[in-house]
UniProtKB/TrEMBL annotation:
Species this protein is from: Streptomyces fagopyri
Annotated NCBIfam families: dapA (TIGR00674)
Subcellular location: Cytoplasm
Positions contributing to pyruvate binding: 60, 216
Keywords: Amino-acid biosynthesis, Cytoplasm, Diaminopimelate biosynthesis, Lyase, Lysine biosynthesis, Schiff base
Protein name as it appears in the record: 4-hydroxy-tetrahydrodipicolinate synthase
SMART domains: DHDPS (SM01130)
Enzyme Commission designation: 4.3.3.7
Top-rank taxon: Bacteria
EC supergroup of this enzyme: lyase
Sites marked Part of a proton relay during catalysis: 59, 122
Catalytic activity field: L-aspartate 4-semialdehyde + pyruvate = (2S,4S)-4-hydroxy-2,3,4,5-tetrahydrodipicolinate + H2O + H(+)
Amino acid sequence: MTHTPRTTASAAPAPPFGRALCAMVTPFTETGALDLDGAGRLADRLVRGGCDGLVLSGTTGESPTTTDAEKSALLRAVREAVGDRASILAGVGTADTRHTVELAREAEKAGADGLLVVTPYYSRPPQDAVEAHFREIADATGLPLALYDIPGRTGTRIEPDTLIRLAGHPRIVAVKDCAYDLLGTQKVLARTELAYYTGCDEYVLALRAIGGAGYVSTVANAAPGAFRAILDAFDSGDTAEAARRQRQVIPLVESMMSAGLPGAVTAKALLGRLGLPAGPVRAPLRSAGQEVADGLLAAYEQLPAV
């Protein structure tokens, strides 16, 4: 009896923005100004540590409290620091379609490789309006789009059927998935060519195992190699090692992402304890206290060497 070989993850088409992406913090000085030198140094460390893509001005990058000019300056500084060693996704999503188009065009001029576009928030548009919003952004530049589905923050889901329709647009190529709906994700994976990146660090292996492209990780700000090792083990065929690696990062994931504080706060607290560029968060967020920072460092120090 002849068996048709299965397609492995390593034989799948190359993901559009790499596999191992970090949702990079936006470093500030102690006075709260944009720290472009620190951003370049942090970006270089992340790429040397295993990231083949960086997401700038996303949730972890505190995009609601950075200006349009700061977003462009950050992108240019990181592009200069990493060159062509990693892809750069620029977060341009806002609650305003017109403003999002403006940010998308500026990101294209500043050297982005792609755009991360979150569902319009606060106004809670219906699905036909959500779809029209994304199509307008996709038509505004020549860059590929990753749609950011995070209903817990935006109040609005990008429904699977909407994603399936949007997959027909030539520049809508990926999804950053924070919907916590594995059934819906598999529905879209089965019916489209969209590259799925988990935005939830605890799902790195699970999503990869069902055909996902990789991850956009907040915790990778501090531990890029630990997350890259999960994918490397799985893609080499060692699923037991991949599972072990995933379990090893869970204490740090829980400390950073399930402690009642936003990831930007905990990531910057840990980076600060490690002597890496980060600085304070901007109001209305408040920097973590000493006890939280101590706990994060303790969890980080439990990670085995990669």
